[in-house]
From TrEMBL:
Stretches assigned to the Calcineurin-like phosphoesterase domain: 45-246
Protein known as: 3',5'-cyclic adenosine monophosphate phosphodiesterase CpdA
Top enzyme class: hydrolase
Enzyme Commission numbers on file: 3.1.4.17
Entry keyword Hydrolase: yes
MF-aspect GO terms: 3',5'-cyclic-nucleotide phosphodiesterase activity
Length: 298
């Protein structure tokens, strides 16, 4: 059994690395040939994931160490440099709220300057804090992204970015007009999602900020409707989300809902959290978590 040299390059030796380099690769080799990847796509196809950075130049509040996010992101960047992901996804709350638009723009500029050095292809999911002070077009303009929800194909997968920063009455968040517990995917976005999934045959990975798997204050209010659309497609493998700052995993209707740990929580780089998502040729999906981020393999 040949050992994948890329995996051996990983500094993350120990129990899991051994597993990946022997047992699990043996399993993969004995399975049916590739059904997901084109031959020219490297396996694993790698994606960087971070969430809830909440960067702000302001004092600690509770367990949120806003200023330390810069050092934590630098640490994550070193890992991503080694993994060399095809793209990186920031799952929302890149910045924390400021009192003025000008200050908020400064926070965004500061953190995005660091974030942009990690990878040339980046996807930003809108978090409630991203569009607390700023309007959506201001945040998106600041990070160079055209839309708040959209889809794209890469590595044999179909990826969908969702935007739940809408009030129940359909108004988009911005200029402190929202209550964080009132997150919704409005009918127009839901219709778009349904049509997008219908026109796609590839396995799907969804990125959202507010949660689609809980009905408490961290959940999207109409998430049962969203889940129904996702389940109807039959192609959605996993939804990655942030917002509640803790590792969590729920399986509902054949779809994994994986909540990633927040970068902002806790002092020092030991309390950091970030991950590499590895998509394997045999269809295996693995989250390689660092620091406080849990590992998963489906
Ligand atoms: Zn957050």
């Amino acid at each position: 059994m040949p050992i994948n040299p890329q995996r051996l390059d990983s500094q993350r030796l120990g129990r899991r690395a051994l597993l990946e380099n022997s047992t699990l690769l043996l399993t993969a080799a004995s399975m049916a040939p590739a059904t997901v990847f084109a031959d020219d796509v490297p396996s694993p196809f790698k994606i960087g994931l971070v969430t809830d950075l909440h960067y702000a130049d302001k004092p600690v509040a509770g367990n949120r160490y806003y200023r330390e996010t810069l050092a934590k992101l630098e640490q994550a960047a070193l890992q991503f440099e080694q993994a060399d992901p095809a793209f990186i996804v920031e799952l929302g709350d890149l910045i924390d709220a400021a009192d003025s638009v000008q200050t908020e723009q400064r926070y965004l500029k500061t953190i995005n300057r660091e974030f942009a050095t990690i990878c040339s292809e980046r996807h930003y999911v809108l978090g409630n804090h991203c569009v607390d002070t700023l309007r959506k077009e201001e945040f998106l303009g600041g990070v160079g992204q055209e839309k708040s929800y959209y889809s794209f194909n890469q590595g044999g997968f179909h990826f969908i970015v969702l935007d739940a920063c809408f009030r129940s009455d359909g108004q988009p968040y911005g200029r402190k007009n929202s209550v964080w517990t009132d997150a919704n995917i409005p009918p127009a976005e839901l219709d778009w999602l349904q049509a997008d999934l219908k026109s796609n045959q590839s396995p799907v990975i969804v990125f959202a900020h507010q949660r689609l798997d809980v009905s408490n204050s961290h959940g999207v209010k109409n998430n049962a409707d969203v889940r129904r659309v996702l389940e109807e497609s039959g192609n959605v493998r996993v939804v990655f989300q942030g917002h509640s700052h803790q590792n969590d995993l729920k399986d509902i209707g054949g779809i994994h809902y994986c909540t990633l740990v927040a970068m902002v929580e806790g002092s020092g780089t030991d309390n950091n959290g970030y991950s590499t998502l590895n998509l394997y040729r045999d269809g295996t999906i693995a989250v390689d978590g660092f620091r406080k981020q849990a590992d998963y393999r489906w």
